[in-house]
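Need residues for this backbone.
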C-alpha cells in the first residue's frame, strides 16, 4: 500500500499531462480543420467538387468521378448544363431533362421538361427548375409539388424553416426603369400571402428569419431591409458589399468590415475591422469563417477575436455544416 501511495502522485501527474496533450491536439484539429491529401490535382480545371462522408465527388463536363478510401469510380455521361448534389444524390440538368443519379452514378430517375430550363438549384431539399417564364418545384425524388406560370426572370426561391411557406422573386422592366418583387406563398394552399415591389432596386438575397413564416430580410443593391410580411420594419444602407449570410437570428454583412446585425430590429450588434482581404463568409458551429484567395480568417462568435491564416486557396466548397478549402493536391476541412 505504501508503494502504491508513493507512486500515486507521479502517475497522476503523467496521466494529467497526457490528457492535456490529447485535449489540446483534439481542440487544434477541431478549431483549425484537417489537411487531407488526395490523388486529385485540384489545379486541373473542373466544374464542381463536392464532399460527402469522406468521399470526394468531382464533376467535369461529361465526366463524373468519386474518390472513396483510395478507390476511384468514373463514368461518362452526356454533357450537362448544370450539376448539383444533395447528400449523396446527384442531379444533372440537360437540355430537356433532369436526371437523378446515386453515388455509383447509376440513374435513379429521369424526367422530361416541357420547356428548356435556364437554371436549377436545391433549396431545403427541394429542387427548383427555372425556365423562361415559369419555375417548378420538385421534391427530392423529382415529383412535382408546385409550379408558377407567367413569372418573369425568377432568380431566388427560399423556404421557411418548416417548409410551409416559400418566397420567390421576379423582375420586370418598364419605361427605361425596372422593378423587382418578392412574393410569399403557402406551399399547401398555393395562395399568395404577401407581395412587395421595389422600384429601381435589384434584389440580391433574401430569407426568412427567426424561424418565422412571414418575417424576412431582403438585401438589394442599395439597402438591407427587415420585413414583417410586406411591411418594412427597418432598413439600412449597405456599401461595398462582398457577401451576406444569415444564421440563428443574426445577419452577417461582409464589406470593408464585418457587421453583425440582430434580426428583431436590425440593430448593429458588432462591427469588426479586418486585416485581410476576404470575399466570402461562412457560418460554422463556433466560428465565423472568412475566405479569400490568399488566406482565411476565423472569428470567434462569442468574443469576436480574429485569427488570420495565409494560404493559397483555389476554391471554397460548403457542404452542409462543413466548409472545405481546396488547395493544390489536398483540402482543409473546417466545421
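Answer:
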Amino acid at each position: 500500500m505504501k508503494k502504491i501511495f508513493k507512486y500515486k502522485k507521479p502517475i497522476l501527474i503523467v496521466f494529467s499531462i497526457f490528457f492535456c496533450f490529447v485535449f489540446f491536439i483534439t481542440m487544434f484539429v477541431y478549431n483549425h480543420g484537417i489537411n487531407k491529401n488526395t490523388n486529385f490535382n485540384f489545379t486541373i480545371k473542373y466544374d464542381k467538387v463536392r464532399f460527402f462522408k469522406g468521399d470526394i465527388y468531382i464533376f467535369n463536363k461529361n465526366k463524373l468521378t468519386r474518390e472513396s478510401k483510395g478507390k476511384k469510380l468514373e463514368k461518362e455521361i452526356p454533357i450537362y448544363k448544370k450539376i448539383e448534389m444533395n447528400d449523396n444524390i446527384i442531379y444533372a440538368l440537360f437540355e430537356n431533362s433532369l436526371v437523378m443519379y446515386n453515388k455509383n452514378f447509376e440513374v435513379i430517375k429521369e424526367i422530361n421538361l416541357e420547356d428548356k430550363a435556364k437554371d436549377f438549384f436545391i433549396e431545403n431539399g427541394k429542387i427548383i427548375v427555372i425556365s423562361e417564364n415559369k419555375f417548378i418545384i420538385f421534391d427530392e425524388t423529382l415529383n412535382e409539388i408546385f409550379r408558377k406560370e407567367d413569372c418573369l426572370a425568377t432568380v431566388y426561391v427560399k423556404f421557411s424553416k418548416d417548409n410551409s411557406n416559400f418566397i420567390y422573386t421576379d423582375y420586370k422592366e418598364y419605361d427605361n426603369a425596372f422593378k423587382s418583387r418578392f412574393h410569399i406563398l403557402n406551399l399547401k394552399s398555393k395562395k399568395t400571402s404577401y407581395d412587395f415591389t421595389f422600384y429601381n432596386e435589384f434584389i440580391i438575397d433574401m430569407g426568412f428569419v427567426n424561424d418565422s413564416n412571414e418575417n424576412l430580410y431582403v438585401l438589394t443593391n442599395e439597402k438591407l431591409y427587415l420585413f414583417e410580411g410586406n411591411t418594412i420594419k427597418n432598413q439600412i444602407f449597405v456599401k461595398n458589399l462582398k457577401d451576406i449570410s444569415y444564421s440563428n437570428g443574426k445577419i452577417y454583412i461582409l464589406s470593408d468590415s464585418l457587421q453583425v446585425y440582430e434580426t428583431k430590429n436590425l440593430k448593429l450588434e458588432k462591427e469588426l475591422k479586418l486585416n485581410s482581404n476576404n470575399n466570402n463568409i461562412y457560418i460554422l458551429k463556433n466560428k465565423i469563417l472568412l475566405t479569400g484567395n490568399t488566406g482565411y480568417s476565423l472569428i470567434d462568435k462569442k468574443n469576436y477575436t480574429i485569427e488570420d491564416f495565409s494560404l493559397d486557396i483555389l476554391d471554397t466548397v460548403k457542404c452542409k455544416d462543413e466548409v472545405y478549402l481546396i488547395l493544390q493536391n489536398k483540402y482543409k476541412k473546417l466545421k
